[in-house]
Amino acid sequence: MLKPFARLAAVVVLFSMLVAGQATRTLAGTTGSIHGTITDTAGHPVAGVQITVAAPSFSNRTTSDANGFYALAGLPPDTYLLTFTREGFQRQQVAGVTLNQDQNYALSIQLRAEVRTIGRVPVRASTSLVQPSTTADTYTVHISCT
Questions:
Q1: Rounded distance between C-alpha atoms, residue 84 and residue 93, angstroms
Q2: What percent of the chain has pLDDT over 70?
Q3: For all residues of the chain together, what is the average pLDDT?
Q4: Where are the beta strands (DSSP E) in the chain?
């Protein structure tokens, strides 16, 4: 009697493992990730860049670390628009990044510095008391005789 029970228990355990293995395999590989490094035109890492991914089905954002590295994980398969923004740099967009299941997409970006007018300084000038075209002292003497 013990043998049939042991056989039944073994069959149940094997069946459970088979079903659990299929469920794990079904869940694996349903999302992907996008990662990379952000540098300036001199090749130095840029920290604090906001990275936004947007697609019809999903959107997310992150910030680059001190080494310019960023990673967005758990992204469902879709075609994304990535936007990179940071104060002092030109905003950059990368469209058409297609991500498939279980794909790790590497995308490194180089940001250009943004030139901005932050203010104006008016300069006004007037003529100098010193006349550079006059090289000698000039005196006027009036003589009167009485």
A1: 6
A2: 70
A3: 82
A4: 32-40, 50-54, 59-63, 69-75, 78-85, 92-99, 104-106, 109-111
What tokens does 113 get? Answer: 């510095």
Kind plus residue range of the DSSP H or E element containing 75: strand 69-75
The SS3 of residue 19 is helix
Percent helix, strand and coil across the chain, each to the nearest 5: 20, 35, 45
Dihedral angle sign, alpha carbons of residues 56, 62, 68, 74: negative
Amino acid code (one letter) for 70: Y
Q: CA dist 101 to 10, 28, 29, 32, 79, Å? A: 35, 9, 5, 6, 12
Give pTM, 2 decimals.
0.61
Residues in the chain, how many? 146
Which tens digit of pLDDT belongs to each residue from 23-73?
444 455 689 999 999 999 999 999 999 999 999 988 999 999 999 999 999
57 φ, ψ to 5°?
-95, -15
